[in-house]
Amino acid sequence: MNSHHPKDAGYPPLKTLLEDYGADSQRWPEGCQTPVPEAAKRSAEEQAWLDEAQDFDDLLLQAPLPEPNTALMSLLLDEAGLTTPQRWFRQLWPSEQIWQPITALAASIALGFWIGMATPGPDTTTQMIASSQQQEAWQLLAFGPESMPEMEP
């Protein structure tokens, strides 16, 4: 194991880093990107792992890039043919038929409108009486009983 990546510190061992990310420490995850220790601080086994990973990295850099697979690309593009709004609607309503959610929405709007129209409005007489009583109470509080001669005995 590498002295820069002790197991008790939560870092993966050097062999795991080399197998997963290669010899270039710039490709390693954050927190593990410490410089590879000098050869004197490295064991023979760690040096062998590092040399093997460097050889493999060099081999991969020399290899030609593969040709793109047009059949795979067309398959992926066909599968990804749905636009974002279509995907959103498909998640919301997985059924293929669009008339069902539209009918449910229209029915709920019509029912809400009908209930709103069928509910009687507030009684205006009750509101006027309550308003006048409140106004008399404020007048009595503000100016005293002298302001309302009809209330005197």
From TrEMBL:
Lineage: Bacteria, Pseudomonadati, Pseudomonadota, Magnetococcia, Magnetococcales
Record-given protein name: Uncharacterized protein
